Amino acid sequence: MNSKTEKRIALISVHGDPAIEIGKEEAGGQNVYVRQVGEALSHLGWEVDMFSRRVSADQETIVKHNSQCRTIRLTSGPVEFVPRDQGFQYLREFVDQLLEFQKENEIKYKLVHSNYWLSSWVGMQLKQKQGSKQVHTYHSLGIVKYNSLKSIPPVASDRLRVEKQVLETAERIVATSPQEYEHMRSLVSQKGEIEIIPCGTDIHRFGSVDRETARKLLKIDPEAKVVLYVGRFDPRKGIETLVRAVRQSQFYGSEKLQLIIGGGSTPGNSDGRERDRIEGIVRELGMTACTILPGRLSQEILPTYYAAADVCVVPSHYEPFGLVAIEAMASGTPVVASDVGGLQFTVVNEKTGLLVPPQDIPAFSKAIDRILTNPQWREELGQAGQNRVKDRFSWDGVASQLDALYTQILTPTAKEPVLVAK
Ligand code: UDP
């Protein structure tokens, strides 16, 4: 492919707007992934349009990230936040709007990369209606998620059906870890083409601050023992496990111990309710003096928080990939994580951090203390983590793997006859 117009792609992320603030309800890893992939692809010469659903009247319709990469917001359903489990009913309108946008702008996307099952349905419609080729990233697999839930939402049957259909029909599925690949094969379908390309992180930004400077900036005692959580307030994230584990730490009761729980929330929404619940547990356990909840941490300040921490904890019950783990590692901070999903791929047990069974409070407590009691080992784990991320999880590396995949998909093969005008 050498003509510029051929390197055009639509990234579809119906509920994960790549241009909004990250770290609030339902805005997390997927938004970061789409935005970073989009920008990195544009640097490789792609014209990138990222489509998302408009959720507020104040939002601009088009946000330009650079001359070749933009977010385009389509109006489908009410112009307000809609939880993702209620989004399926608005997808038909989303497809119509996308087709209309193409018509108005005289564009046709030959290639779409959909993100999360809702967008996969949109991608399948474009494939059906205009022969677009489809690449899909799940970000979360319904069947795995539902296995870890007590009650299953009404949308489950649609989700499972769509997730199977896209696996069997897309030109390629991107699994972000070997664990996700295994889940697809064992739990969804044996059919379909899957390639493993991980998520990435900004190895220049994370790791740009040293610990001493970070602690000065955040006014944290150089001698403090800092345990950090970063992420959304969602029961699946296991923040309760972390709080209870810190309460059992051998450092609990010393003035040096500090627990920082970073993440945004909106009062009254589901993340606001989870934050209230967590604060309730903190109070009940008498931990208010050693616990800080700074709210949403911007992507600009995050490297400073990671660098200031002795250990970053990712206590999720289930985690398809877990960007926070590689962000912490890129910052030279060891990770204690649940031994699940993508975390088993990113965190190397005893080398870049520790993996422990999900929801196992004593095991988390012990793992945190092993790192807090051994500063020399902490440095070694941190260094090994940083090296691992540089080698395997830079956005530039991820984007060049995607670039190769897209190029291969768009290049006509012998099996697909090319129509040549006589
Ligand atoms: N994040 C952020 N500010 C916050 C909390 C989270 O920018 O206050 C970002 C975090 O840096 C990471 C993403 O949100 O890039 C969370 O991604 P992850 O894959 O860990 O979890 P998900 O949200 O996809 O479940």
From TrEMBL:
Residues of the Glycosyltransferase subfamily 4-like N-terminal domain: 28-205
Keyword Transferase: yes
SUPFAM superfamilies xref list: UDP-Glycosyltransferase/glycogen phosphorylase
Family annotation (Pfam families): Glyco_transf_4 (PF13439), Glycos_transf_1 (PF00534)
InterPro entries assigned to the protein according to its UniProt record, in alphabetical order: Glyco_trans_1, Glyco_trans_4-like_N, Glycosyltransferase_grp1
Record's keyword terms, sorted: Transferase
Record's protein name: Glycosyl transferase group 1
Gene Ontology molecular function: hexosyltransferase activity
Residue ranges of every copy of the Glycosyl transferase family domain listed in the record: 210-387
The species this protein was found in: Richelia sinica FACHB-800
Gene3D superfamilies the UniProt entry points to: Glycogen Phosphorylase B
Domain of life of the organism encoding this protein: Bacteria
